[in-house]
Amino acid sequence: MKTDIQIAQEAVLKPIVQVAEQLQIPEEELELYGKYKAKISDEYMERIKNNPDGKLVLVTAINPTPAGEGKTTTSVGLGQAFGKLGKKAVIALREPSLGPCFGVKGGAAGGGYAQVVPMEDLNLHFTGDFHAITAANNLLAAMLDNHIQQGNELQIDTRQIVWKRCLDMNDRVLRNVVVGLGAKADGVVREDHFVITVASEIMAVLCLAEDMKDLKERLGRMVVAYNFQGKPVTAADLKAVGAMAALLKDAMKPNLIQTLEHTPALIHGGPFANIAHGCNSVRATRAALKMADYVITEAGFGADLGAEKFLDIKCRTAGLKPDAVVLVATVRALKYNGGVAKADLSTENLTALKTGISNLEKHIENLQKYQVPVVVTLNSFITDTEAEIAYVKQFCEERGCEFAISEVWEKGGEGGIALAEKVLQTLEEKESNFKPIYEDNLSLKEKIETIAKEIYGANGVNYTPAAETQLKKLQDLGFGHFPVCMAKTQYSLSDDPALLGRPDNFRIQVREAYVSAGAGFVVVLTGAVMTMPGLPKEPAAFRIDVDDEGVITGLF
After folding, report:
1. Is the pLDDT of residue 555 over 90?
2. I need a surface site. Which of 82, 167, 357, 547 has the fewest CB within 10 A?
3. Closest among 134, 164, 214, 192 to 519, alpha carbons compared
4. Are 310 and 325 in contact (CB under 8 A)?
5. CA torsion angle for 357, 359, 360, 366 (degrees, to 10)?
6. How far is CA 200 from the centre of its chain?
7. Is the pTM of this model over 0.85?
8. CA end-to-end span of the chain
9. What mean pLDDT do residues 459-477 have?
10. Which of 26, 6, 7, 8 is nearest to 16 (CA)?
11. Is 400 left (phi over 0), alpha (psi -120 to 50) or beta?
């Protein structure tokens, strides 16, 4: 059996200018990064602003398990299937982070015959967007510490510095560090911290900004510290906005690549879904809607994280309205939720399936609360039995969802036609009356508790004394109208990764809250979730290599 990277490397790609022609994008509006990658010019983005919008389809999933779900694979395959049916479609996805690629995942471009390519470029440095974000983030950190060293005119309290340095790699030893050691000229000694680049507020800002003007305004609002009077100090106060914007100028432009079947794909931005808001950029999504009749996008991790943030943060901020949601599951993952060990998932087990399907049931109920039509798809494995598939199909249809098998990993677009037809039928027959799950005027704690109870299924929320103080301060400072970005484990509906299926009789533990004033939301840390992940015992980096001819291996 061929690996994903072998399939990708054997593919015959079209020059990206030919892919752009499918969307009527002239070559002069592309900024080429070699033959198969390009950025789309600001001038073209401005020119298409008044085009009518296509239909927006969100792809999400049940909670991820070691058995795999295939959300990106389904997104890519669905876009290819639309192409097979003669529909004008664009896929809008996030860029992968180097941390997971070298840590757990080993690649994030889809799989099998439903991939975006060039796969190695996408998973590694791509067009440098993440490096630009890292540089802008750390420039601000350097200017902050330099301001303190040069006399601290803004009276910054060094015990209340909240801006963290970042790195696009899982590196646990950088979570908590001490900086400024050495001579007086080497800075003020203080405790500092690193987050992974995809958790940087600049990533969230770039993905929510409409244009350069909006980007600079958002960068300026970012809170970096508090002064001795407890008032926020911003990036604008440090006079850092212009320099950061210069670093981000090209990163603001969406990237165009293609699938294995030459379907256009806009890949832009990549906030973590269990720390940041987990969606590709607003600019790319809006541009895609102006370019095509159908746009397939995805949100990270399970629907309790990525979809909730897509619907409550991204759509609220950008005025987007999804027309349908595709919810991805696998028989294997449902049996895992029902208590079956990973080694035994290939054996038919209807009892475990009937237990584990409660996880899917909760995600269906959650998405229906947003009044958006839901299509459930089973990502097919050869070990799935007819009885297992029939049970899931009946279960979904009894809950008002369309249902389809997806075989895109094995068959590409051809394997997604049944799903594409169900999505098209849903778009034609069912109306989306999308509405976020909470109103802006609720307090921060009311918003947290709404998500905890309505989406996670918790009985309530417990707050540490520090979180209580932080939330009150943010409310008093005027940030109470912001949506909340819940940072939670992706593996469970609860904040305990060990609680599978559909947990009940639990409470969410909120340990910390801070404002991302530029992004326009309040981040709420629950459980033990980390903003700087670590590498596993056997990271994917062990398997990644490059041969004498320059061919990369091991990226799955």
Report:
1. no
2. 547
3. 214
4. no
5. 150
6. 13
7. yes
8. 12
9. 96
10. 26
11. left
